[in-house]
């Protein structure tokens, strides 16, 4: 692979190079330029996104062959708001694929984000093994349930209406009221709400007594034959039934309704899945598939640890320790970071003399930080090689959280 590395340049895309970036994006994903252009330039994140490209020197000039976008976002991890970069739109021109260009671009972007002090890089992967080789790890799972409209419970007499801009503030208030922060969900700042209202025009609301008590964001998959619920929120049972009843009435326009959500939330939908009493005990009401969800990679390990731990009350029995990351790409993470205590609060800083050392890989730190499994489970599966003296401390600092990036938060 060394033959081409000296002839490539990875850097941020300049504003006057945006059209070249868009061309590679459309070629890489098979998009129509005229349709994609509006979404590309009107994106509420356009001004803050980092657009990156890898140029190849050939035939006396440079060709933009591989691109990606780094989107600045904030995610809930436990009760903490953790800023991160979402990596999206990784694409390479078809004639230049399988030559390592995307991998090289990702490595260079990671190094730049490290210098910036970014905590995490998160993505929704097309190939988990490809990204795992670069230090990302699958940290969450998501439940998929697909039902025909006829399988949904029918609740007649209640209707939804399409939302207008006048409803937006009420929708935001209802979300705050009914959707407490969950690990893996994005913090809904004003830009994020603007993006949702712009990107997801299919928003319907349920109103009772002049108050919006339920709403539904959705889009379509499979050439329009599958309606995917992006987010469904209700404040009472009447609103839940109204939304499900509205979905069940779509049998003439869609073949399936898909729900993607954390496993623990499947039961809250109240889907019994029958339109008539069951006849066979071996026939399931419905089938749940739990699929790999998003991948995470620590970028600047001290920044990540500060975001998760700094200023927390010191738990009983806390054992100060040092942490280092064996990182082939971001060598600076190999330096030890101390996790200690000061006046009853956790402090993340310089290495602590004589404290035990936790040495781990970027993939292990990703699972530990997001709470993919309990520390005991990570150790039992030989994913985390932690000294016995640190087991209880790690359990208290990094509890199991079962993270999930739901469709409303896809980027």
Question: What features would you describe in this structure?
Answer:
The protein has twelve helices and 18 strands. The chain is globular. The protein is 27% helix and 29% strand. Residues 1-6 have low confidence and may be disordered. The protein is an alpha+beta fold and 411 residues long.
SSE blueprint:
Blueprint (H helix, E strand, L loop, with lengths): L1 H4 L2 E5 L5 H12 L3 H10 L7 E9 L2 E17 L2 E13 L8 H16 L3 E4 L4 H5 L4 E2 L2 E7 L13 E2 L5 H11 L11 H10 L3 E6 L2 E11 L4 E9 L2 H12 L7 E6 L26 E5 L2 E4 L2 H9 L11 E5 L11 E6 L2 E5 L7 E4 L1 H9 L4 H6 L10 H7 L14
Parallel strand pairs: 4-5, 11-12, 15-18
Antiparallel strand pairs: 1-2, 2-3, 3-4, 5-14, 6-14, 7-12, 7-13, 8-9, 9-10, 10-11, 15-16, 16-17
Give the distance, in angstroms, between the N- and C-terminal Cα atoms. 31 Å
Q: What number is the mean pLDDT?
A: 95
State the CATH class of the largest domain: Alpha Beta
CATH topology of the largest domain: Aminopeptidase
Question: Which descriptors would you attach to this protein?
Answer:
seven-stranded mixed beta sheet, alpha+beta, 411 residues, disordered N terminus, Aminopeptidase
Summarize the entry for a quick read.
With 411 residues, this protein is of the alpha+beta class. It has 12 helices and 18 strands.
């Amino acid at each position: 692979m060394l033959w081409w590395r000296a002839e490539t340049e990875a850097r941020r895309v300049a504003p006057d190079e945006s059209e070249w970036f868009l061309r590679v994006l459309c070629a890489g994903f098979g998009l129509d330029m005229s349709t994609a252009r509006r979404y590309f330039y009107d994106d509420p994140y356009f001004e803050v996104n980092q657009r990156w490209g890898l140029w190849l020197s050939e035939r006396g000039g440079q060709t933009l062959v591989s691109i990606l976008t780094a989107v600045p976002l904030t995610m809930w991890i436990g009760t903490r708001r953790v800023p991160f970069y979402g990596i999206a739109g990784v694409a390479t021109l078809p004639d230049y694929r399988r030559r390592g260009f995307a991998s090289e671009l990702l490595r260079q972007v990671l190094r730049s984000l490290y210098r910036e002090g970014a905590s995490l890089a998160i993505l929704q992967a097309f190939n988990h093994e490809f990204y795992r080789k670069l230090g990302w790890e699958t940290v969450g799972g998501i439940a998929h349930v697909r039902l025909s409209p006829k399988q949904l419970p029918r609740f007649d007499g209640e209707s939804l209406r399409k939302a207008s801009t006048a409803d937006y503030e009420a929708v935001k208030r209802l979300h705050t009221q009914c959707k407490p922060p969950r690990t893996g969900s994005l913090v809904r700042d004003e830009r994020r709400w603007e993006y949702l209202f712009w990107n997801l025009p299919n928003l319907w609301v349920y109103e009772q007594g002049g108050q919006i008590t339920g709403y539904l964001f959705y889009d379509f998959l499979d050439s329009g034959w599958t309606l995917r619920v992006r987010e469904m929120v209700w404040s009472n049972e009447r609103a839940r039934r109204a939304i499900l009843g509205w979905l069940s009435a779509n049998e003439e326009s869609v073949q399936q309704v898909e729900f993607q959500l954390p496993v623990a939330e499947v039961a809250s939908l109240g889907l019994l899945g029958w339109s008539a009493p069951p006849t066979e005990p071996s026939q399931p009401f419905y089938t749940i598939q739990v699929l790999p969800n998003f991948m995470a990679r620590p970028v600047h390990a001290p920044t990540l640890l500060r975001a998760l731990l700094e200023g927390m009350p010191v738990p009983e029995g806390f054992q100060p320790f040092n942490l280092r990351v064996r990182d082939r790409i971001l060598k600076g993470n190999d330096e030890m970071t101390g996790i200690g205590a000061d006046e009853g609060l956790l402090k993340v800083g310089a290495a602590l003399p004589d404290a035990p050392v936790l040495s781990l890989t970027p993939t292990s730190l990703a699972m530990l930080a997001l709470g993919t499994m309990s520390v005991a489970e990570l150790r039992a599966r030989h994913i985390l090689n932690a000294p016995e003296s640190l087991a209880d401390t790690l359990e208290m600092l990094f509890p199991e959280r079962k993270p999930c990036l739901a469709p409303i938060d896809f980027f």
